[in-house]
C-alpha cells in the first residue's frame, strides 16, 4: 500500500472524526494505563483519546510516514509509532486498543482482531469502527471504473478492500474470548457541497489504491470517468447539495 495523503484525508476532518467520537463514547473505561490508537492517521482520533483520558499514556500507531508526520505536528507531546497493525503486539499494560477506519485495510483482519483481543488483560477493551460501504454507489463505481480496459491492466496490483463480516461473524469470532461485546451499525448521511466533493472524499481513502498506480495523465482520465458516474448516482437535493450515505460497523469488546 502506498503512503497516504494526510492533507487530502483532512479535507473532511469534521465528518471523519464523528465516527471515532461515537465509538469512544461507548468505551467503558475510566483510566486505561495505556491506550493505543491503531491506524491513528493524522492524529484526529488520537486527540480524542488524549482529551478523554488525560492521565493515561496514549500512543498513536500507523504504517504511513506521511500520516505520522502530520500527527506529530498536531500532537507533539504524544508518542507515535510506525508499525504494521498485522504484526504489532501490545505492551502488557495496554488496557485500550482503539481503531477508527483502519482494520478494513488489514489483510485477514478478523484473525488480527482476535489475536489483539486475546493479548489484552482482563477488563481491557478493543474498540473498532470500520466502514461497511463496499456496496454503496461510491465504492461500487470505483470497481466499475477500475475495470475499464483503458487502465485495467495497470490496476491489476490494486488492493481494494473486501467486504466485512456480518455482525454475527464478529460475534462468533470474538465473544469466546471476551466477557462482553457490543456490535452495531450507524449510517451517516454526510452533507456534501457537490458530487465533486464526494470524489474529493474518496481521494483521501478508498480511491488511493487505484490512483497510486496511475501516472498523472491516466489518473486524470480515471477521475473524470469516476466523477461523471458519481454525478449521475448522487442527485442534488433542493439546495444543490448531495448526501453521501455511509454505513459503518462498530465493535466494543471487553476482555
Proportion in helices = 25-40%
Secondary-structure arrangement, i.e. CATH architecture = 3-Layer(aba) Sandwich
Number of domains: 1
Specify Rg, calculated over alpha carbons.
19 Å
Overall structural class, as computed from helix and strand content, comes to alpha/beta
CATH topology: Rossmann fold
Count the E strands: 7
SSE string, helices as H and strands as E: HHEHEHEEHEHHEHHHE
Shape annotation: globular
* Main pleated-sheet profile: 7 strands, mixed
Question: Can you say what the CATH homologous superfamily is?
Answer: Vaccinia Virus protein VP39
Highest CATH level, the class: Alpha Beta
The strands making up the biggest β-sheet line up spatially as 3-2-1-4-5-7-6
User: How far apart are the termini?
Assistant: 31 Å
Please state the average pLDDT score. Answer: 94
Provide the low-confidence segments as ranges: none
